[in-house]
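Example 160.
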Amino acid sequence: WDMMKMIISEILKNSKILKMILPATKVFDCSVIDLSKVHTQQGNTTVAENGKGIPFDVKRVYYLYDVPGGELRGGHAHFELEQMIVAASGSFDVILDDGKFRKRVSINRPNLALHVVPGLWRELDNFSSGSICMVLASNQYYEKDYIRNYDEFLSHKNNE
Ligand code: TYD
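Predicted structure in complex with thymidine-5'-diphosphate:
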């Protein structure tokens, strides 16, 4: 019977029917990582390679661009997804929020990546004209991994 319970619990977890738990992470768990750059007379090169300074294996890359001036992006939290956010061009701000503390991080160099752990609310604003926000993500796109309502996020965080 114990074996049966374990198998059923695994199946429910995998199909995400069991309530997902938002990790008790804090804004201070996020840091800016210098991917460094190779500088030559022909220009700079920055590399993001699995197993070399990135805290997770990259399964997806996406980028935000042509963001209209004054626009706010993000506005969600993830249960499991880990990300590295890079200003491939221009600059923007990332606002991190763990339900208690808020932290604004300015991203403005193509060799710097903000590591965002799961369980945090994030918003992006202050996009400079022509900026490109490139995101390296630890998993494929999965809508059930998102919380898109701030009050819902807070109630998850307060129930930890
Ligand atoms: P969305 O997550 O709403 O943007 P934001 O980063 O501002 O919260 O994504 C914008 C649209 O793109 C939305 O319709 C979902 C879609 N999308 C995908 O199809 N795949 C992806 O990997 C991502 C990140 C977004």
